[in-house]
Amino acid sequence: MTSASPASIASSPLAEIRATIDRTASLTGRSGDDVHLIAISKTQPVEAIRPLILAGQRDFGENRVQEAQDKWPALKAEFPDIILHCVGQLQSNKAADAVKLFDAIHSLDRPSLVKALAHAMDAQGRRLPCFVQVNIGGEEQKGGCPIAELPALLTSARDANIDVAGLMCVPPANVEAAPYFALLAKMARDHGLDQLSMGMSGDYETAIMLGATHVRVGTALFAHARRHDRGCPRLTEAAPYRIRI
Ligand SMILES: *Cc1c(COP(=O)(O)O)cnc(C)c1O
Question: How far apart are CA 166 and CA 163, in angstroms?
Fold first, then answer.
């Protein structure tokens, strides 16, 4: 905060979010160090990503293999301690590419992908921690394993020697996320899993309160100016409203 270098200016949303994570974690007696902030850099160009790396951010997430292949091999060569997380639906025929490039998978959601990932990890001698994504709201269009099929999927993943780190979810949009986070946390406990990938820009504080170990934040990190612009008209709209009542 004391330096006015371009890197520190660009990282100010990052610093704010990290401070919020620390504060929120401490409310439940945890350390902010136990919560991994994954910067979701999908659709962001390398020029927008680099300032975050220079400010110390190391966990990044992408949702498409092709886009990640275009952006990350050079950055990972330059910054070898970067941890790249795959957070998008993964086609089985992309499993080998994903295992080669990513360091963790958050979207393991079906038996055929267990098979493809296990095969790719064996072939490459790389073992990536995997989160099983649960379709926590039972939404038809959404990725994730149906709740009823989770026990069988966990068994097949463990049988295939996949390192299951925990559970991941994306709750339904536009409704209170807390009940879904609480349900995912309970399911993880029931299955002896201690890591939870849950919480995005709009609800990561709630997710941390309910036990998230990995929050996946995109918009709040990368679109700070846009969020700020959206906030201003609300203030000017509020004034005439207050006068009318
Ligand atoms: C895009 C995305 C995020 C980040 O969402 P924001 O609301 O931009 O923070 C998190 N998780 C997944 C799976 C995503 O696709």
Answer: 9
